[in-house]
Amino acid sequence: MIEHNGGSGDAPVPEEAVLPRGAAMRAGEPSQQVGASGEEGRAEPRRRRLRWWVWVPGLLVLVAVAVASRIDLQYYAIQPGSAQSVQQFITVPPDKGQPVTHPVLLTDVQLARVSALTYLFFKAQPNTELYPLPAVTGGTDPSELAAQGDLQMSQAIASAKTAALRHLGYQVPAVPAGAVIAGTFPGTPANGALHVGDVVVALDGHPTLTARALTDALSAHHPGQTVMFSVRKGGSGSPVPVSITLQATKVTVGGVTLTLDLGIQPEDQVTYAYPFPVKISVPDIGGPSAGLALTLGVIDALDGGSLTGGKTVAATGTIDAAGAVGDVGGVPQKTVAVEKAGASIFLVPSVERAAAESKARPGLHVYAVRTLDEAIHVLEANGGHLGEVRTAAALSSAGAG
């Protein structure tokens, strides 16, 4: 809002300037307005009618804006976010850490639900794309989107620590810990009974320590049966019983209609045993796309070399514990963000090179990578290098074995 204050320097307005034409004021007499017919008092009702006609359109506009802002359309808008140092999110033991002078940049996007009010605004933005709701949520309940983002980030953090430590030569054992709920479908029996982040460890008393084990156990049941799940709510604490009656329910996923008896998206929940604590905390950012950047950041923090070779490097892509890099969303918008941050190298999943290059300007070199090893090779080819940590870790692990 811009307010204008005239101040004491404004010139005073002569009294006669505000009088209606044909009217006069006598000294010492109260002012009166006289109409063209000479009759007094008719201008005031007319002025009230004019004021009413002025306010009604304005009121209607306000009501229309309020209603439009509450009508959510079946789209999300993705806009460029920021590119920031990944190192601020990573903490390693002081005796293990190394100074990092040119950290890798983590990049993100801004995600917003499109309403009837904001649709035209987002359409007019040059670096904004609109995606159908299922393309963002995967067909699960939109109310679980934030929880999905948190779960995906926690999985990305675990995989990043594991992939980085294994790349440096450390042994990181993994133990199956159940089937984590990555999403539920609206209208199905699971929706509202199970939530994103819950971990199912048993079905009817039988352990289900992987997503495949849970799926196989469910295949022996049919609609109308009631099954008892043992669930770690939110992924922690002691398991609690959750009873659900199966019911055949039709849902549409990616334009395909499916019939589901339960309506969950299960994934493997894995517990890793790290050789020493590595803490990663990324507040206010969800999703899995920071995996590659976080992995490079952990390596940089633990390694004695200079992984980026003094250059400004940004990265996006999922990561798994074995170091495989997966595709992400919003790569054109992320390219805009890393350019604004001054990056000269941008590592992206191999299938999304064209998407990044569509927004890349001269001076930003886009490299497609499929694995962590490929990302390291790209950085080494551009002047980066690893130190002696990898050799020492390998020797230490071999000695412990």
List the helices and strands and how they pair.
Layout: H1 43-69, E1 72-85, E2 90-91, E3 105-115, H2 119-124, E4 129-132, H3 133-137, H4 145-167, E5 174-184, E6 199-203, E7 206-207, H5 211-218, E8 226-232, E9 240-245, E10 249-253, E11 256-260, E12 264-272, E13 279-280, H6 291-302, E14 313-315, E15 318-319, E16 325-326, H7 331-340, E17 345-349, H8 353-357, E18 365-369, H9 372-381, H10 389-400
Parallel strand pairs: 3-14, 14-17, 17-18
Antiparallel strand pairs: 1-3, 1-4, 2-13, 5-6, 5-12, 6-7, 6-8, 8-9, 10-11, 15-16
Structure, explained:
The protein is of the alpha+beta class. The chain has two domains: 192 residues, Ribosomal Protein S5, domain 2, CATH 3.30.230; 99 residues, Pdz3 Domain. Strand 8 and strand 9 form a beta hairpin. Helix 4 runs parallel beside helix 6.
What is the typical, i.e. mean, pLDDT? 84
Low-confidence stretches: 1-41, 397-401
Largest sheet: 6 strands, mixed
Strand content: 15-25%
Principal-axes geometry comes out as: flat
Q: Which architecture of the largest domain would the CATH scheme give at its second level?
A: 2-Layer Sandwich
Number of strand segments: 18
Helix percent band? 25-40%
Instruction: Using the coordinates shown, work out and report the CATH topology of the largest domain.
Output: Ribosomal Protein S5, domain 2
In terms of quaternary structure, the protein is single chain
